[in-house]
Task: inverse folding
């Protein structure tokens, strides 16, 4: 079922979102100082292509630098990306068929709001949650 949802997602929403994140990543990588945000954009683009069966977890080794970087990201890009995901999520949840895709947009809100210090992992895989003790 995850594969079918991912294929439908890719056709109707994921490809365009991933291309947008890749474009933003390329723009960020042009300047030396914004490379961490560019790499985060590339990670989010991969997540936007295939979101079902994956989740975002907090990295236990993330420090103060990622917190400061997230504040900069929040001001310049995070708010706008989050508003886009929320708007698309609400619009897709209006239809019965679009509810899983709307929920996928809502699932992307934390990583689009503050991407540094987060990791995208496969759900259900052993050891998928680093730093979490069972």
Result:
């Amino acid at each position: 079922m995850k594969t079918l949802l991912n294929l439908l997602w890719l056709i109707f929403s994921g490809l365009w979102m991933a291309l947008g994140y890749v474009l933003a990543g390329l723009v960020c990588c042009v300047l030396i100082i914004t490379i961490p945000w560019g790499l985060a954009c590339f990670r989010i683009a991969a997540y936007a292509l295939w979101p079902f069966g994956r989740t975002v977890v907090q990295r236990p080794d993330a420090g103060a630098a990622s917190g400061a970087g997230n504040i900069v990201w929040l001001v310049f890009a995070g708010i706008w990306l989050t508003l886009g995901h929320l708007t698309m999520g609400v619009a897709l949840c209006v239809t019965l068929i679009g509810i899983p895709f709307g929920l996928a947009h809502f699932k992307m809100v934390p990583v689009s709001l503050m991407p540094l210090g987060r990791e995208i992992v496969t759900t259900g895989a052993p050891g998928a949650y680093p730093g979490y003790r069972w």
Notes: Residues 2-122 form one domain. Strands lie at 54-58, 118-122. The longest helix spans residues 64-93.
